[in-house]
Amino acid sequence: MVKKYVYLFNEGNASMRNLLGGKGANLAEMTNLGIPVPTGFTVTTEACNKYYEDGKIISDEVINQIHESLAKLEDTSGKKFGSDENPLLVSVRSGARASMPGMMDTILNLGLNDKVVETMAKLTNNPRFAYDSYRRFIQMFSDVVMDIEKRLFENKIDELKEKKGVEFDTDLTAEDLKVLVSEFKEIYKKEKGEDFPQDPKVQLIESVTAVFRSWDNPRAIVYRRLNDIPGEWGTAVNVQQMVFGNKGDTSGTGVVFSRNPATGEKLIYGEYLMNAQGEDVVAGIRTPLPISKLKEQDPKIYQQFEGIVNTLENHYRDMQDMEITIEEGKLYFLQTRNGKRTAQAALKIAVDLVEEGMLTKEEAILKVEPKQLDTLLHPAFYTEDLKKAEPIAKGLPASPGAACGKIAFTAEEAKDRAALDEDVVLVRLETSPEDIEGMIAAKGILTVRGGMTSHAAVVARGMGTCCVAGCGTIKVDEVKRTIEVGGKVYTDKDYISIDGTSGNVYGEKIKTVTPEISGHFATFMGWADEIRKLKVRTNADTPKDAQQAAEFGAEGVGLCRTEHMFFAEDRIMAVRQMITSKDEEQRRRALDKILPMQRADFIGIYEALEGKPVTIRLLDPPLHEFLPNNNEDIKSLAKEMGLSFEELKLTVENLHEFNPMMGHRGCRLAVSYPEIAEMQARAIIEAAIEVKTTKGFDVVPEIMIPLVGEIKELKYVKDVIKDTVESVMEEKNVKLDYKIGTMIEIPRAALTADKIAKEAEFFSFGTNDLTQMTFGFSRDDASKFLSDYYDKKIYEQDPFAKLDQTGVGELVKIAVEKGRATRPGIKLGICGEHGGDPSSVEFCHNIGLDYVSCSPFRVPLARLAAAQAQVKNKR
Amino acid sequence: MVKKYVYLFNEGNASMRNLLGGKGANLAEMTNLGIPVPTGFTVTTEACNKYYEDGKIISDEVINQIHESLAKLEDTSGKKFGSDENPLLVSVRSGARASMPGMMDTILNLGLNDKVVETMAKLTNNPRFAYDSYRRFIQMFSDVVMDIEKRLFENKIDELKEKKGVEFDTDLTAEDLKVLVSEFKEIYKKEKGEDFPQDPKVQLIESVTAVFRSWDNPRAIVYRRLNDIPGEWGTAVNVQQMVFGNKGDTSGTGVVFSRNPATGEKLIYGEYLMNAQGEDVVAGIRTPLPISKLKEQDPKIYQQFEGIVNTLENHYRDMQDMEITIEEGKLYFLQTRNGKRTAQAALKIAVDLVEEGMLTKEEAILKVEPKQLDTLLHPAFYTEDLKKAEPIAKGLPASPGAACGKIAFTAEEAKDRAALDEDVVLVRLETSPEDIEGMIAAKGILTVRGGMTSHAAVVARGMGTCCVAGCGTIKVDEVKRTIEVGGKVYTDKDYISIDGTSGNVYGEKIKTVTPEISGHFATFMGWADEIRKLKVRTNADTPKDAQQAAEFGAEGVGLCRTEHMFFAEDRIMAVRQMITSKDEEQRRRALDKILPMQRADFIGIYEALEGKPVTIRLLDPPLHEFLPNNNEDIKSLAKEMGLSFEELKLTVENLHEFNPMMGHRGCRLAVSYPEIAEMQARAIIEAAIEVKTTKGFDVVPEIMIPLVGEIKELKYVKDVIKDTVESVMEEKNVKLDYKIGTMIEIPRAALTADKIAKEAEFFSFGTNDLTQMTFGFSRDDASKFLSDYYDKKIYEQDPFAKLDQTGVGELVKIAVEKGRATRPGIKLGICGEHGGDPSSVEFCHNIGLDYVSCSPFRVPLARLAAAQAQVKNKR
């Protein structure tokens, strides 16, 4: 049987979205519902994929089917391609499975040629309309299909307007446009070496091919990456009979929503313009009217329109975004789709639709994009201000929100100036743990280097602070205290504004506004919590973060990194004494100083969570991270510590590592220096006893041993911890429950999880490191080559942002299976950055983890993603 | 049923080696053969394991069984523990499954106490003997069982000898020894706070426990690691009635071999001493006689002895190493085991035993340790010189052999001085690829940093040059051009000698000798080749190495690293131009310069191998490895290259990586700069065409894409190569076969091998990197903490030397299975350092790989290991 690559609108329906694309499926569905839709057909996504498989060639098979469908279209419309009596004009539009607005190409008025344009002029009695359509078509076809620079055509229009002394395109006459048409054709001939194609069938096939090709244009690739759309989906192409909103005063065009997409208010919302085509609305030369005006202008049409809008909303059970055209008093719907909406609107609409009985709670849960919740939790730029601003650079959208302030060049400066109530944005080549206080003080953080999981990005997300990372086009001169972008120099007196959601950087002051969280949020999230099976914890290192996360609904701490506490000003010295110790005894003395501070940290976190479980990870980073690197700093620290420069320098050199990521860190530190683990275990348990005694919270501390790769390694450290815990409990004469488990972040741990589970009472998948080791690339270095990988379509997603289910996910599955085989009740969670990514959360749900843990500001997102996963895949 | 932990000698046999240990099983076997063996019993290895499982406590169950067996021993011997008529004395000796000479502890004369010593004096009419035995027992028991310092006892002996004005222990009288005994008991009491135990049963249980404990002493742990003996084997303990060779002139003791262990000559070989105990032979105070003298001295005893030796050799079908004692004219065999032998002897004995019809070739193949072959291929120290030398330091035995020369501090110096016929040893903190010419010129290489797979180690092994790596106790002052060890300073005028087999470093000149390879080698290796199924290739980057490997029997090149060629003096400049190129065009110009050089390299290698397959890996290291690091060098290079310092410095900075091992390297370079892969593919194919045309060798180049983690990545680079190859073949109008495959060295590649195999025609397991990624530690950094891991018995083996079958091996197995599922005929090999490790070779054989590839000097070893694997596990 011959494969069907082309469907007439009346042959499809809404369920065929994957094959026909969103637009095509909805055009088919509307056709079936009896809604006035200009006739047409859809070339399938499979034809697009075939085009790529065949080496970017459209096959005869597909061409023939297009011609067959075209013939049918001619039959039903009574019009004919190239006819001098009743010529058929069509639009050619892309339509992928997921909506990708503005990402791909559209060609209108296809079918016009030198002969047809005359016929049109006569038929419409409107030569200006005919020639304007023709010149637009030549321009679009040349640009979109033939890749001729748009500018060449625009220059001609500008020249002509100048010559005629007029301001607007609309001031040009039919004769002027006729001249333009012949000039445009000359440009075409000059650029392509052949005449502008006069055969509408050639125009059509070339245009369809151009749409296929546009699936792989750079901006489409980037859009797909940002929106998790796989490249293999392909796009469909819709060929549809043209209708004209610019045929005079009884014609018009409009874009409307069945509810307000900004607020969610239940009221038809939109704009229309009479005697105009879609383009004119966008161009902004004439001001469109609110759709409510149509009711006054043409009540009959409005009534028909309103009826169809309601039909569509009821049919799709969601807010609809529609495109309409009125041609000489006849209403057409050119498109309908579920409308994009703001986060506020999404919540209101979801809650309203449940209350109206249109949706169940489970269905409503699917109506809000988890990532949208981000915008509810962070400041945004004031829209009016933003409209006027031009970005000066673009980095990675590392932590959402918007921030504005004067430039601070060091963390210390940021802290000091913020203390004087100045708004500052901290700009650094990259941040390090020592910068933590400045990062807290700053409104936003901008770094030149580093990716989505760089120190700046991770810490900023944790704090909910806006951050743009890896903005390589900015040149920072730390000595002169300036930054330079595009030839312009900014000092600490200058404002910059950064948008952590888009990655945009602005060289000016832009006002920010903090969103209000409505009651709908609570209602909606309540439903999410009812539905989901996967628990959501948070990654929090401080009582403040833990508190914040608890307010956002975290059900515990999944990862408390103990090393961040080590950098605080009041304890880094003790930590450094510990590191430079000559022997165990000296080290123990230094650790004794750190003990009470760690204990206080843990008390704070336990109290913030009021007895919810807390997973505390033992010291993880290599020790050299706590020491300075350059001779200057070593000198001054040596002095401070009462060591000789040579002594300290030698320590620093001895601790130097070629690949710190794979160095002396994690549980390897505890193997070499068990006294560190002892101190931490003591602090964890003493704090739990304190909180139990004074506040009555029954904390069950979960002590997590990082970077385990071998059961004996885990056993060794576990024994050290257990001995300490038991003796603390004996000293204090208090018994409490606790768990000892491990992070699974080394491939070998996953591969030998059956053995590891003999000793581990819980696994927490550290998917950041597991991703690094599984892919064999360091997240700090990968940004250098990942862009080449995206360009060449090798990777479509940043594996540090979205869990790689094929490779890393395979290891996680192996570990889950093997771990449960040994210890059926083992508690399983994930604490990598992926815990806050919706598709990764879904994966965790599907493979049966108990919880995900993510940064505080991502907790709501994870709760929603978990609920959606349960609706999609009940477990 | 009660588990049996103790076996009388007549209850066991040779097949029970795992349970009874080697010594115990052989004592049982000899007993059954009717050979005169003093009676006794063996406490099993399971009892040892139980001791550790029970938390280092010997259980009552085991104690009771020992007491029961002791009672039986008393019955059969007619002697009794502590008896004042006929007291039983026993020896307590360890005996593990594998022989570990000198590694664990022995206690002799157990059963003596203040009363028994008197009885013995009377019974033997030899009070001197009795008291000498007692003082020895106290000394041994105190040292071995009670951990009292030996020195304390030796001091007393020295004091006494001085006081008496005598030179030798043997000059001390019975009365002197009696005094010593009481002084020894005082020391014991002072040290332990209690009297020396008088109850022989207490002495016995304490001693058995001490032997169990000694299984885990540091030197035993190190020995096990060097000899691949798992910790969980445990040791057995043999308790045997004492016989005395020191009871007068009709008594004696000896150590004999059924053939000469140094040469393999078929002649009973050994030494004996009358009126002596084993200890005396070792102490070297009296000179033992060759065993042939015994024939003259006591022909009757000798005849019995010779008969038993022949019986044992025929029974065990191998050269035996035996211990005998003659007590008052009665001959006893205290031990027999397959004798240790030199490599030369091992080969001769194996070949002779086959010729004598005692062994089949398959059995003979198992009689030579693969690692022994190393000593046949490398120089060794002249034994007489070595005896007089004392090591000044010890590093890692990174590449076998011995070397002696004056110290050279830089590679350039080594090269220059070697050119003047001076023998030099290159001493560096660590080596880098730029040092290659100096490394070739030096007799040996000594580094302060780096492990078994550091640059120095890998390159040295490849060249067959002796190397000691990671010798941290040496302080190198590169400015003063001195090294300091233990307070002594050495300059470039001083000789040092290094032993790459032991890791020893000597601060003096020691003569080296080059071994002769006998005809037995060829015969024996011929059998190995007949038997084995696994092919053996070599890792070789130069024609010279390839040639050497071919002489050693390599069947092709499994890994030709193309980057080593990049460092040669005549091309590094072109490589640097390539790296500092501003755009593709500039880069292509630089690559054009490199092309003819690469082509010449490949021609050389193809020719050396005369048409055998050659796997060539595309450029692998990150580009910054080719640029200098410090400002000085950058400055001078910038000048040389006509760049500004700032420009070059910026390039160096931009290329800097946090974790180079996980950075922009391997196929990632080819993705970013496909023109590099193009140039290399062109050189590979042009060279093959050249060699085919001029020499008639039909080379099938195997182009290997490194560091692949994702199928699309492989596909991209493969397409680049394929296009180049096809166009080269078209240009030259020659067709030839070639293969494109990949290294499996990233966990994700192994996990997705079913996908990878769609594009890869072969897999070569890069187990060096795969080990790093699977364990999550960098081989450059791991040496810092691995020693802690060995000390704490977490790892018993260096996973970079011996393939970790549990974790890394699991990934290899997954990849083999998945790869074969997609492409049943896929060629599978291994090219990591593990290709030259016998147990890893066996693993590769067992999982069905097609070949292993190792450095040239390990090829014979791998051939033998492969044959042994086939004998052990037919496939």
TrEMBL record, chains A, B:
It catalyses: pyruvate + phosphate + ATP = phosphoenolpyruvate + AMP + diphosphate + H(+). It is an enzyme of class 2 (transferase). Pfam families: PEP-utilizers, PEP-utilizers_C, PPDK_N. Residues 519-870 form the PEP-utilising enzyme C-terminal domain. Its cofactor is Mg(2+). Its EC number is 2.7.9.1. Keywords: ATP-binding, Kinase, Magnesium, Metal-binding, Nucleotide-binding, Pyruvate, Transferase. Residues 421-503 form the PEP-utilising enzyme mobile domain. Gene3D superfamilies: 1.20.80.30, ATP-grasp fold, A domain, ATP-grasp fold, B domain, Phosphoenolpyruvate-binding domains, Phosphohistidine domain, Pyruvate Phosphate Dikinase, domain 2. Residues 57-295, 303-353 form the Pyruvate phosphate dikinase AMP/ATP-binding domain. GO terms for molecular function: pyruvate, phosphate dikinase activity. Belongs to the PEP-utilizing enzyme family. This is Pyruvate, phosphate dikinase. It comes from Clostridium weizhouense.
